[in-house]
Amino acid sequence: MKIGIILQSNKPEHIWNTFRFGITSLKANHGVTIFLMSEGSELDIVADTKDFDISKKITEYKELKGVLYACGTCLEFRGKKETEVCPVSTMADLLKMVEESDKVLVFG
Description:
By secondary structure, the protein is an alpha/beta fold. It is built from four helices and five strands, in the order βαβαβαβαβ. The protein has helices spanning 12-27, 54-63, 72-77, 91-100; strands spanning 2-7, 31-36, 67-71, 88-89, 103-107.
């Protein structure tokens, strides 16, 4: 199954759970794409907390070949041109993810 996930939050617990689900899905041999929108596009500046090891989850997700995109317009609103965490994308990329996914989830 192909799973598309839209992450719209910069809250550590939301991010952590999004990547935990993505990792679990990848380990179950599903394809997963996470698209960062709105506050989710701030992923690269959200620090780990005592309870949520976000950087570890992102690394594990990428090692399992999970796909990750960030909304270019959302980044621009925040004064960023690109992110070190993932490639800059467009609404056309989001549409393609939705069209190609068997299921789409929204976190945040």
